[in-house]
UniProtKB/TrEMBL annotation:
Ion transport as UniProt keyword: no
TM stretches of this protein: none
Gene3D superfamilies in the record: S-adenosylmethionine decarboxylase
Top-rank lineage group of the source organism: Bacteria
Cofactor (UniProt): pyruvate
Keyword annotations of the record: Autocatalytic cleavage, Decarboxylase, Lyase, Polyamine biosynthesis, Pyruvate, Schiff base, Spermidine biosynthesis, Zymogen
Gene Ontology molecular function: adenosylmethionine decarboxylase activity
Protein name: S-adenosylmethionine decarboxylase proenzyme
GO terms under biological process: spermidine biosynthetic process
């Protein structure tokens, strides 16, 4: 099994790619994604995101 890896990532300013990573991580673990919410902060100051799973959740905050 391969896990999504953000280690060493730089300039995580745009939340759009995170949605695909949430879905990839859920598939890798057999989890069910119910919903994904992302919020990009003004002036490219980062983003926050959460994937609501039937089993738990996944989140990222930059």
């Amino acid at each position: 099994m391969s896990w999504p890896d953000f280690h060493g990532a730089r300039n995580l300013l745009d939340g759009a790619p995170a949605e695909a990573m949430f879905h990839e991580a859920a598939r890798a673990t057999g989890a069910t994604v119910l919903d994904v919410k992302l919020h990009d902060f003004a002036q490219r100051a980062g983003f926050t995101g959460v994937a609501l799973l039937a089993e738990s959740h996944i989140s990222i905050h930059t």
